[in-house]
Amino acid sequence: MAEYSPFDQDIVHNPFPAYRALRDEAPVYHNEQVGFWALSRYDDVVAAHLDTDVFSSTEGVTIEGIDRGMPFLIVKDPPEHTWHRKIATRMFTPRRIAALEPFVRTTAARLLDQVADADEFDLVEHFSFRLPLDVISELIGIPGSERERIHRLSDRLVARDEGLTVSDDAALASMELAQIFSDLVSDRRRNPGDDVITMLMNTEVEDDNGNVRSLDDNELASRFLELAFAGHETVAKLIPNGVIALSWYPDQRRELVADPGLMANAVEEMLRWDPPSHYQGRWTTRDVEMRGTVIPEGQRVILITASAVHDERKYPDPELFDIHRDIDRHVSFGLGRHLCLGPSLARLETIVAFEELLKRFPDFTFDETGVERAYSSNVRGLAKLPLRIECYGRV
Ligand code: HEM
Q1: Cβ-contact 155, 172 below 8 angstroms
Q2: I need a surface site. Which of 4, 51, 291, 303 has the fewest CB within 10 A?
């Protein structure tokens, strides 16, 4: 019978065989010992994402529940979620995102040019976290001096301890991060400017009852913390996952070098093949029957989107990476009410990252002995990826 525990080290390294077993043998899986249920088939994951009345986010979206009760958009249900999201969405207008493109490109180029003379460099340390962190910081207005600290604290915030307890270090990191953003908002309150913090401070929206709502300074600080975290930890993981795919499938890498027009679809496939967010946690508000099994009220259920996008009932040969795959809809950004706020930004950053990377280093390999996985709760990816760009790989 299928077994799945997110704390099993083999599963941390490669969860896909366990996901397949879940889909085939236990699509409505219950782990009594850790205390959660798991949905793994595409149709079930989609249905649960769309049913926010039954599958609530307020108890946290991780298995550990570290985020329970935090003032984040991602752990709110309607009606609170609706007006908070209306305000946050103001930051992500297509025009604002498109206007960032030159900044994304010059930043990617600058970071890669800095390592161009090395034979090998750590892709995570020198590129994959710095690019999205600089971009989201530019969008939000985080000073350059704070960016590195925010990244180190974000890593500590999601680092996983053994078992379900929240580590003291994660709690400390969370408090330190909260202070940084609270100081930033206070500063902007005293010195308003032409930036998104000031813009959001002055944004008013109507809630479901027609009342006018706006964010107070604490809510604003939490929103920016959430965006700074979600806006860089995810893309920082997607880029190395994509590099691994292109190292394992060199023919497809050569195709991309020859025709960068294929990049947008290649990035969709990277998002499907090994997405940064593997599951989203929920909490049942009442008994719910799925495939003949009743999940009782008040249970933690994880919706494994990374399994959904490998469901052979939806995607033929799901383990194969294929930049030509026709993807009508995948769920790597979630869907429904909590659909990610940053897909266009994440896509832009990843497309530009690979265009600039392949332009300089069309023929990279990586040192498997130096690869390190980040042990984090619901964001999956690498902490280190030594990329070899020997002379033959340069243009
Ligand atoms: C490859 C990159 C990314 C992936 C795979 C990703 C994935 C996700 C997923 C799966 C969710 C749904 C969570 C749930 O239903 O519980 C989500 C929500 C969210 N994401 Fe992303 N994300 C990415 C990049 C970003 C970026 C760049 C930003 C911001 C600039 C961002 C901000 C958010 C926010 C604020 C939410 C919560 C939305 C809500 O609850 O209404 N994400 N993301």
Answers
A1: no
A2: 291
3-state SS, the chain, equals CCCCCCCCHHHHHCCHHHHHHHHHHCCEEEECCCCEEEECCHHHHHHHHHCCCCEECCCCCCCCCCCCCCCCHHHCCCCHHHHHHHHHHHHHCHHHHHHCHHHHHHHHHHHHHHHCCCCEEEHHHHHHCHHHHHHHHHHHCCCHHHHHHHHHHHHHHHECCCCCCCCHHHHHHHHHHHHHHHHHHHHHHHCCCCCHHHHHHCCCEECCCCCEECCCHHHHHHHHHHHHHHHHHHHHHHHHHHHHHHHHCHHHHHHHHHCHHHHHHHHHHHHHHCCCECCEEEEECCCEEECCEEECCCCEEEECHHHHCCCCCCCCCCCCCCCCCCCCCCCCCCCHHHCCCCHHHHHHHHHHHHHHHHHHCCCCEECHHHCEEECECCECEEEECEEECCHHHCC
Q: Find the 116 Cα to ligand 1 centroid distance in Å.
A: 32
CB 236 within 8 A of CB 128: yes
Q: Is the CB of 276 inside a 6 Å radius of any atom of ligand 1?
A: yes
Looking from the CA of residue 275, the nearest atom of ligand 1 is 5
CA–CA separation, 164 vs 36, rounded Å? 11
Section 111-135 average pLDDT? 94
pLDDT at 322 over 60: yes
Q: Whose CA is nearest to atom 41 of ligand 1?
A: 338
Averaged confidence pLDDT in the chain: 92
What is the model's pTM?
Answer: 0.94
87 Cβ closer than 6 Å to some ligand 1 atom: no
Ligand 1 pocket test: which of 340, 344, 348, 380 has the largest number of ligand atoms within 8 Å of its C-beta? 340
Find the 190 Cα to ligand 1 centroid distance in Å.
30
C-alpha 244/C-alpha 266 separation (Å) is 13
Over pLDDT 90: what percentage of the chain?
Answer: 73
- Condensed to tens digits (0 to 9), the pLDDT of residues 335-377 reads 999 999 999 999 999 999 999 999 999 999 998 899 999 877 7
Residue 154's nearest CA partner among 130, 170, 131 is: 170
